[in-house]
Design a protein that fits this description.
Organism (chains A, B): Kitasatospora cinereorecta
CATH class of the largest domain in chain A: Mainly Alpha
Pfam families (chains A, B): TetR_C_11, TetR_N
CATH superfamily of the largest domain in chain A: Tetracycline Repressor, domain 2
Keywords (chains A, B): DNA-binding, Transcription, Transcription regulation
Largest sheet of chain A: none
Oligomer: homodimer
Number of helices of chain A: 10
Strand content of chain A: under 5%
Structural class of chain A: mainly alpha
Radius of gyration of chain A: 20 Å
Helix content of chain A: 55-70%
Number of strands of chain A: 0
Protein name (chains A, B): TetR/AcrR family transcriptional regulator
CATH topology of the largest domain in chain A: Tetracycline Repressor, domain 2
Number of domains of chain A: 2
């Protein structure tokens, strides 16, 4: 983050809880991320070009290259920007916390910008290893963040030691992604809750314990 | 199926168990399906054209239009052609049969032709409602066929009455599709078996019973 920024204009100060340092730098970032989404939706990932993104954002292409270095890096930053924060308290059961994770997938699916981003990436990942890597990295990062729910449950003894947190999160979100990005069926809060309940049940039964190969 | 065909050439008789009536008609179908896959892989679904498919197959475009009527119909027929037959005996437990279903998803993923077909369709479905409909229809048909495993289990009392067979199948295959088509992670037989075990456990616990909204 560039620390040589002029002081923030008080008029443009973001709401508490969403503060981000930087004024012009933050505005440049926002403009570039918005331009990237527009470029991706219009041309697809394979044909997206950083010089056109820079032109859409009204900044120099060199600024974009210096800050992000590659389209994949912008795409990952965009995904972080579109994500939602969720609370997964240790005082909640695993099923409650997995329900929060599953409902967050639905919330993101209802955000047109996030849905557009993910659709473009799923579509592109089939043909582009770089797109696959960017998408895979974003989703792995999100599993890292939500894994805390599983680690809490292991510590509390609600699920067996050795339970693989990523596998529990995958089981929770997979039926939702199947509907959203493969079969194209609608997803409802009931689907989210059912997926969370099934994943929690399987985790309690020890099905997601990672064992060394025999 | 055209029944005015000349008798089959014994040299080209397929192996027992894979017999399909028709000689020239069957060869035309095989050539068109093969040409469709090549066209889809090369140009994507959005740009695939029936006249080019006909030219690749060495048949008249009118023949293709008369027999299939639309690209979507050819794509659905291609998927049926690439599918594998599986046995889901009533004498097996639900978990055993779901493991067979999950392993079949892996088998299809190892077939380059089927993998190419499904990748093209997942990629196209994001932008094309017709592609989405064709893909959705193929997968719903496969769930219909594999639902017998769940219906057996309901009749035997292994899972509660009112268990939704499609939901059980979705839960079984979803973690595999997530890896194959969203995160791009490898899928292993252990992943298939774990998904089958988790879905069977949730089904036995009554999590897939469809209740009227309260």
């Amino acid at each position: 983050m560039d620390r040589t920024e002029p002081p923030e204009d008080p008029q443009s100060t973001p709401a508490p809880g969403s503060v981000r340092p930087g004024g012009r730098t933050a505005r440049t970032r926002a403009a570039v991320l918005e331009a990237t989404l527009a470029e991706l939706v219009e041309t697809g990932y394979a044909d997206a070009r950083i010089d056109r993104i820079a032109a859409r954002a009204g900044v120099a292409a060199t600024t974009v290259y210096r800050r992000w270095g590659s389209l994949e890096n912008i795409v990952v930053d965009l995904a972080d920007d579109l994500a939602v924060s969720i609370e997964l308290p240790d005082s909640h059961t695993l099923e409650d916390n997995l329900r929060t994770v599953a409902r967050a997938v639905l919330t993101l699916n209802e955000d047109p910008a996030h849905r557009a981003w993910l659709q473009v990436m799923v579509s592109a990942a089939v043909r582009s290893p770089k797109a696959r890597e960017a998408l895979s990295s974003v989703l792995a990062h999100r599993r890292d963040l939500t894994s805390v729910a599983v680690r809490h449950a292991v510590t509390r003894g609600e699920v067996p030691p050795g339970t693989d947190p990523h596998e529990v999160i995958r089981a929770t979100v997979a039926p939702l992604y199947l509907r959203m990005y493969v079969t194209g069926e609608p997803v409802t809060p009931a689907d989210a809750d059912r997926a969370a309940a099934a994943a929690a049940l399987a985790a309690r039964a020890g099905l997601f314990v990672t064992r060394p190969p025999e």
